[in-house]
Amino acid sequence: MRPTRRTPAPLPITIRDITTTTIRGKADVSSNSLPALRQSSTFVPETAFGIWFLRTRTWEHHVLRVAITDLKRLIHAPMPHAPVIVDAGCGQGISFKLLAHAFEPSRIVGVDCHAPSLALAKQASMRVPVEIDLLHGDCAALPLPDASADIVFCHQTFHHLVEQERALESFRRVLKPGGLLLFAESTDAYIKSWVIRLLFRHPMHVQKSADGYLDMLRAGGFAFEAHHVSLPYLWWSRAKDFGLLERLGLYHSKPGKRRETLVNVAARKPL
């Protein structure tokens, strides 16, 4: 006679100011029905489509992994041993294993203001052999001590933020002197394209060009040179045709003769 298997009672998971439940190790949140966060004065949340897209292979491998690889290439300086990384706008935690592999941190702190995404980030953290803390908070007011991080990683978060300058002030505050800001963002040329406006939601009045973001980083007190900046022109960022014409050999764009869609920067907080 086979023993009867009992479904374990839900176990509480507490993520600084958030409580959810898990059953059999899975978050009690449906991956395709995550509720969008109510718009606040500082942040415009993703649509349901956007939240779903963040769990796709395209996002992990063609967007996130490529950005982290490029940002690491832009550093051009010795990295601190076992750094503390703040993932500002960590979402569902897809970045955790990629950051752990790229930088071998002693600790990752994920910050996001969307509670259901943080519940999924908690599950992602359990599959990464690094200490990971999750905080429910605003990028414009990171709930962290001064000079507590070696790296702030901010990937595709700024186009959701209304108070972008305040967020940079917060990043600079939590970074140690000489600490790194790894910044990867889509420009207004991409965010304002018709297909992105149809499928996603963003505060249009704060979107910037690549030069606009670079100027903002400098004005925010971050230091970088030309070799710390890249302007990728990836297929998914070309919302007009998603790179199809170039794949067919019918069109080839050149830097300086196109509207840049992405900007990656490895900037430092001065000593």
UniProtKB/TrEMBL annotation:
Keyword check for Transcription: no
Biological processes, Gene Ontology terms: methylation
Molecular function terms, GO-annotated: S-adenosylmethionine-dependent methyltransferase activity
Highest taxon above the source species: Bacteria
CDD domains xref list: AdoMet_MTases (cd02440)
Domain Methyltransferase type: 86-183
A Pfam family of this chain: Methyltransf_11
Keywords assigned by UniProt, alphabetized: Methyltransferase, S-adenosyl-L-methionine, Transferase
Cross-referenced InterPro entries: Methyltransf_11 (IPR013216), SAM-dependent_MTases_sf (IPR029063), UbiE/COQ5_MeTrFase_CS (IPR023576)
Name listed for the protein in its UniProt record: SAM-dependent methyltransferase
